[in-house]
Amino acid sequence: MNSETLVAKVWNFAHVLRDQGVPYQAYLSQITYLLFLKMDEERVELIGEPSLLPEGSRWKDIKDLAGEALAKRYGKLLETLSRQSGVIGTIFLKAQNQIEDPAKLKRLVGMIDSETWLSLPVDVKGEIYEGLLARNAEDVKSGAGQYFTPRPLIEAIVEVVDPDPSQTVHDPACGTGGFLLAAWEHMKKNPRARQKDVYQALRGKFSGIDIVPEVVRLAAMNLYLHGITGVETMIEQKDALLNAGARVYDVILTNPPFGKKQSYRIVRDSGEVDTEREDYDRSDFFVTTSNKQLNFLQHIMSALAPSGEAAVVMPDNVLFEGGAGETIRRRLLQNFNFHTLLRLPTGIFYRQGVKANVLFFDKAPPSDEAATKTLWIYDLRTNQRFTLKERPMTRPDLDDFVACYRSGKVFERKETERFRKFAFDALMARDKLNLDIFWLKDDALDDPDLLPPPDEVAAEVVESLEAALASFRSVAAKLQGL
User: Fold this and answer.
1) Which of 69, 186, 240, 479 could form a Cys-Cys staple with 172, CB 3.0–4.6 A?
2) Interval 129-174: pLDDT, tens
3) Would you kindly state where each structural domain of the chain is located, as residue ranges?
């Protein structure tokens, strides 16, 4: 049975449970629990390794039960494992049985028990789980979908950043772990990783954070199935923006959550406080804003190690928003080598109409001169049309960008129709330091058939209206405070 057949088999049962009121996200969590329990038993029986689970909370304790006895024991088992440490505690974080019908639970247990999962190659197990995550994102169009970055885009980003086995890789908004997995696969191919000590050390190079417990569970299991983690987990459930943390990282790859507002406001030494929100006190942040993308960008700039490098997916507003946005862009150009900007096409994310970019920058040593000399911009948006199903983005769609990037040989870059360079002085002279730069003619202006689909246009209008309303509310709140 190949991976696609297994994905279909495991996922088809989700529709049965959906009719019983079990959300897809909850179903995916139950699959995660049961898969881990089953593979733990296989570790003991097939390869003689000790169980990672405490006595009384293992697969053998539930697989032969049925009815209320199964539901009761399963619920107690999840409660016990949710209090464990390491990878077990992360995977079973706040775990609960959400399948109220014991017969449906029994069928799911039987389905998992009918396969020998440990005998499947690591790549196949990973493909199965990633297939489930993709199905979840497609069907829900929210939940896991909002954390789902297209795999071809992730692979291209990792390829051009080219992390080395000696470097630490971090994602402060890791979602289901796509960037960390792609970096792991890339770094394993490095000739140095063939050395046993280097390969063993490689597992400790990765770390991720996400604020949503369910997503942290999915990420931890995803990495576990790909053979990255052992007893300890590298995924942490917390708010990455809460503090700077004790570590800095050589490479940061991330796609922070979209949306302009957050339920928090950064508080600086100036004492600016919004009493309606919980406050962050980040002395390392150099500007106060309630825009969460700008706060994530500041966090990443702070968390980079000396000479560290980052690739960050950010929406268009980060490039042109005034006030805090302009201040942050100025700091990015002056204190970091902001060398490359990739303008992404619409239609590649589950949220329709999203206009996003990838910012590539390196941390530079302190200097009296600006660190950025030239910003290269690749326009993959103009006259490019993608959809999630009829015309999804594939890895070859990014081949020209990867070739133009000249990873490791950036001084050999050459301008093309879609790849242009802009000098530091020219950028600084732009009104409000607007970096939303484009030069290609949009053929859709002359041919209505090339216009984006109506749902994308509608989504863009809604997003603009929401941004305007948020601005009005901010002004109203300040006026009320006078």
Assistant:
1) 240
2) 777 777 666 665 444 444 478 889 999 999 999 999 999 999 999 9
3) 3-132, 144-453
